[in-house]
Amino acid sequence: MFSRILVCLDGSSHSEQMVPYASEVAQRFGSKLILIQVIQIPSSLAAASAQGAESVIEEEMRRLAYEAQQYLEGVAARLREANLPVETVTIEGSPGDAIVGYAAENQIDLIAIATHGRKNIGRLVFGSVADHVMRHSTIPVLSMKPQPSDK
After folding, report:
1. Cβ–Cβ < 8 Å for 136, 102
2. Domain coordinates of the chain in residue numbers?
3. Which residue from 10, 18, 21, 119 has the fewest beta carbons nearer than 10 Å?
4. How far apart are CA 89 and CA 134, in angstroms?
5. Cα(8)–Cα(102) distance, rounded to whole angstroms?
6. Strands 32-39 and 141-144
7. What count of Cα atoms within 13 Å lies in the side-chain half-sphere of residue 132?
């Protein structure tokens, strides 16, 4: 039923709380997990782009992509120890659109994503990637509100 599960991570402990749920589904269905992190151009660099500093942006994006890949490989290593098939992917773009687009283009059967639990004005100002994915994807979405960290 779920051959390929896309697990959306953003480097936070909140997003990682979805991993055990996605892993359980993967074990039950014999699914492959695809861990994804979307890299966005930081707003501080967007102004530099307008001023013609493309090389600075390219260098920063390479650094961010490398860090994201290292992070995803760390998460993937733990899953591989449990004998789960795992792939890692980093892509650039707006998170909601990038996730929906990747899922549609890569035969994803289930998207697993944690919300950040923002309410009212926070959601209005910051939006919600999980909400965007649920509204714009035709693929089933497994979503949860993470528990606060004890840190």
Report:
1. no
2. 4-144
3. 119
4. 20
5. 11
6. unpaired
7. 16
Question: Which residues 6+ apart lie within 8 Å of 7 measured at CB?
Answer: 18, 19, 22, 33, 34, 35, 36, 112, 113
Distances (CA, A) of 93 to 9, 38, 71: 14, 6, 18
Burial level of 44, CB count in 10 A (0-12/13-18/19+)?
exposed
Residue-by-residue pLDDT tens, the chain, 151 positions: 899 999 999 998 889 999 999 999 999 999 999 999 999 876 666 666 556 667 777 888 899 999 999 999 999 999 999 999 999 999 999 999 999 999 999 999 999 999 875 554 444 434 589 999 999 999 999 998 888 765 4
Tokens of 8: 């959306």
- What CATH superfamily classification does 4-144 receive? HUPs (3.40.50.620)
Q: d(Cα 141, Cα 120) in Å, to the nearest integer?
A: 22
Residue 143 burial class via C-beta count within 10 angstroms: exposed 0-12, middle 13-18, buried 19 and up: middle
Cβ contacts of residue 140 below 8 Å, gap of 6+? 109, 110, 111
